[in-house]
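*Target chain*
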Amino acid sequence: MAGSTKGQKPAGHIFRLAAFSLHHSPTPLGNYLRRMKTKLGPKGATMATAHKIAVIFYAMVKNQVEYDETLWAARDAQREKRLETKLKRQATRMGYKLVPIEPKAA
């Protein structure tokens, strides 16, 4: 039988519930959900985040390792660096100079 079967799978439902609950979470997965929500809308973001959670869960079970959030911190730092480089390149292309704002001392 080709194609998808009717009905929802219990594991998929659990992953979607977990993804839906991350909206206000300050974790990297919560940040991912909010970023995807701007791109894909609420349903698409929930599905994408549920898929990411499922992949993480599968890797943890397959490799018998614990969840390591420090890997996410490194990836977020890389993403921020890429975004900064992209913005600088776009500003230069348009004839502007991008200058960082210095934080004010309290």
Observations:
- The chain has one domain: 10-93.
- The mean pLDDT is 88.
